[in-house]
Structure formats: C-alpha cells, structure tokens
Specification:
The chain is of the alpha/beta class. The chain has a single domain, classed as 3-Layer(aba) Sandwich (Rossmann fold). 42% of the residues lie in helices and 20% in strands. It is built from 11 helices and 7 strands. It has a 7-stranded mixed β-sheet with strand order 3-2-1-4-5-7-6, with helices on both faces. Helix 2 crosses helix 3.
C-alpha cells in the first residue's frame, strides 16, 4: 500500500498487518522466540489478522485468539473457520478495567497469555498487564513483545498510535509492578533497527514499505545470526516473560 495523507490509524494498522502477512520468515522468527515459554491453554492478545496465530496452527499448537475490534474478530473467524486448533475467537479489550466482572469466564483460565506488538498501543499499560495477570492460572506465563528505545520513536510509531517504546528495564518494571516474577527479558531483531530508522526517521514514511519487508524477509536467516552474535543485547524490540505466583 502506498502512503496516503488521508490514511487513518485503522487503515495504517491493517496495511501494516497485511504487509507483515507475507513476511513469513519474520513471523516464524517471532514464534520461535516465544515458543519455548508457552504452555497450553494459550491466549493470544491482539491477534489482528492472524499472522502469528497461523504459526501456532502450522506447528499443531492449539490456542485461543482475540482482538478488541469486531472487524478483526470477523477476519479471524473467517480465516480459521475450518481450523479446530483455534479453539475460539474472542473479542477482548485488554485495557478494560474490571475484567473479572466483564469476562468472568476467562479469569484464571490460561497457562500462557502472549501479546506481540500490542501493549505499546494501550495508554494504560499497567491495566493491560494487570488483566493479563487475571487471565492466567497460578504459575501461568505472560509473554510481551514491544518496540524498543524511545530514541527510535518516529513517524511509524505516530501513525500506528504507539504511546511509547521500551527498554529491558522498563518492561521488567512494568511486569513486576503487576505482581509477575520476571523469568527473562531480551532484545529481538538487531538488524531491524536500521530499516526502521531509515524509513521512519530519515525518509519519514508513514507505513512499513511492502517491498522493504519482502527484502528483509529474505534476509531473516542472516538477521537471526546477527541476534546471536549480539547475544540479544540490542534490538528493535524487547521481549519479556513473566510468571504468575
């Protein structure tokens, strides 16, 4: 999709998800990064159009998917209508106060709740993490992936309605503030920093370019090596895993 000055945030978000849907190596890399920490039953927060959900299905792992907009929920229902590994499509707003009253049937029902590129969109991110805690059974794990480094905040972030970017320390603090024991934090996607800075800060693009993502996708095997070389100490995103006591 070509940048347009009339695109609203919903259109920008959908355009980004559609562009990312063809970056199957990048999606697989994200899945591989969190896979060691998941245990069923699993709930994905902010499933969008199902890019990461599809990786779970491909690996024969059952999960529940969710989104806060009815439009994305309809897309998910259509995409996974014939897929028994997708147990249900839930309309769920992680920013809702009193989740135990609005969705009592979901409280304490999951051993893993994960949200990839979601929490940065939520103004009250403490409420979001508190709700993750409520959704989990004792001993359950939350897995959060968010954009890293406030200095990288640029036009992409504004168009996507990101409230903030994070560090390993700030993500750890967020998880601990809501009662989680943090098992690990690490950076993800070192090479992505350069593309994000070039397109979003230097070129001032408003959406992630599809051609750039396709090129990046081809090089993911090399970028995975780069993350090993840097020992996940720097990257475009930061991942945190917390456990409920």
């Amino acid at each position: 999709m070509i940048d347009s000055p009339t695109m609203n945030p919903a259109e920008v978000g959908l355009s980004t998800l559609e562009n990312l849907s063809v970056a199957e190596r990048l999606n697989q890399w994200m899945f591989d990064s969190i896979h060691p920490y998941v245990k069923t039953p699993i709930l994905e927060i902010g499933s969008g159009i199902g890019n990461i959900s599809a990786c779970f299905v491909q690996h024969k792992i059952p999960l529940y998917v969710s989104d806060y907009t009815i439009d994305y929920c309809r897309m998910l229902q259509q995409k996974f209508a014939q897929q028994p590994l997708v147990k249900a499509v839930l309309q769920l707003d992680l920013a809702t106060p009193g989740l135990e009253n609005t969705c009592p049937q979901l409280v304490g029902q999951f051993n893993t709740v994960f949200a990839l590129n979601v929490v940065e969109h939520i103004k009250d991110h403490q409420q979001a993490i508190a709700n993750c805690y409520k959704l989990l059974a004792p001993g359950g794990r939350v897995i959060i992936l968010v954009p890293a480094y406030q200095t990288l905040y640029n036009g992409f972030d504004r168009e996507l309605e990101h409230y903030r970017r994070y560090t390993r320390a700030s993500l750890r603090q967020l998880l601990e503030s809501q009662g989680f024991h943090v098992l690990r934090t690490w950076h993800f996607n070192f090479a992505g920093i350069f593309g994000w800075f070039w397109s979003g800060t230097i070129m001032r693009r408003k959406t992630l370019p599809a051609d750039q993502l396709k090129f990046y996708n081809k090089l993911v095997p090399l970028f995975r090596i780069a993350d090993k070389v840097t020992m996940n100490k720097v990257g475009l995103s930061v991942i945190g895993v917390g456990e409920k006591g």
